[in-house]
Specification:
mainly beta, single chain, 1 helix
């Protein structure tokens, strides 16, 4: 698949580069770190010039002032220098693009309710679902990578998130994976293979992440997990499974055979569960078994 990057904003300038980073104008100053392929970061409120004035130099990026006299209205008009600093624990939220085929799927990591996409320190790309509404005002439509999933949520519930900064959640070193979720998620259909191309079924490992809030009581949020039409986990209680409230827990199912789509169902105990009893799911991860293994 061809690697590509997008300049979704006004871009009357030249792309410059160092050994590890691209610099260019995308309405604001745009920075793409190549080594980890962690996506595009925008430095807002300042306007790069219409030529080559984002200059990498000895580990820094310097940008001489080049907007005075321009009709573009930006609040900051000055020269700028950026120096390296230690990476944040989780990195930055961004939006990944892809215009190629999305099947067959070898690995797919869905961060439910997340504000954007993120590649973690292990190299795993976590895609937000629902997809970010990434729209440019210069002709690019919804440029975020397309995912053709189908989901069903209890009416009145849905996807939510909270700020992960400063948050500690027991049972995980990645709290940002458990600060967004789908509340009341009933089912998901995830296309993994294209049956029309005659591909044989593939065996997948499916992982799901859950968390409970502090103060949640065991026995309140209980549900069954059904995969490919078969209940694989009955009476799942995230509080009990994690050993107490305010903790994260992951469940893994191996050897899931898929012909075209993966079907997941979360079946609450009780006919009309409220927000305190409805299934709540933080992430879904799908990994194809190595070729030759079933």
């Amino acid at each position: 698949m061809t690697w590509e990057f997008l300049r979704p904003g006004h871009c009357c300038a030249i792309t410059s580069a160092s050994a590890h980073t691209l610099f260019y104008r995308s309405f604001y100053a745009a920075i793409y770190e190549l080594t980890g392929d962690k996506g595009l970061n925008l430095f807002g409120a300042i306007r790069p010039g219409c030529w080559l004035n984002m200059v990498p130099a000895c580990g820094m990026m310097v940008m001489p002032e080049a907007s005075s006299g321009c009709t573009c209205s930006f609040p900051i008009r000055c020269s700028l220098a950026l120096a390296p600093r230690p990476d944040r624990i989780r990195g930055n939220w961004t939006v990944f693009i892809c215009h190629g085929p999305t099947r067959p799927v070898k690995h797919l990591s869905l961060n439910l309710g997340a504000p954007g996409d993120l590649r973690d320190k292990d190299g795993t790309l976590w895609l937000a679902w629902p997809r970010p509404r990434a729209v440019s005002n210069i002709g690019y439509g919804h440029y975020a990578m397309k995912l053709y999933l189908k989901d069903r949520v209890i009416p009145g519930m849905g996807y939510s998130r909270r700020d992960d900064r400063g948050v500690t959640i027991g049972g995980t070193s990645r709290p940002w994976l458990f600060t967004s979720w789908a509340l009341g998620l009933q089912s998901m259909e995830i296309p993994l293979l294209d049956r029309k191309k005659g591909r044989p079924p593939v065996s997948y490992t499916v992982r799901m992440g859950f968390h409970s809030e502090k103060g949640e009581r065991p026995g309140k949020r209980v549900f069954d997990i059904r995969v490919q039409g078969k209940v694989l986990l009955r009476g799942f209680d995230p509080v009990r499974a994690a050993g107490g409230p305010g903790k994260a827990v992951v469940r893994e199912f191996k050897g899931i055979r898929v012909k075209d789509s993966l079907f997941l169902d979360f079946l609450p105990h009780g006919r009309r569960p409220g927000r305190e009893a409805a299934p709540r799911v933080d992430f879904v991860q799908v990994l194809a078994a190595p070729e030759g293994k079933k």
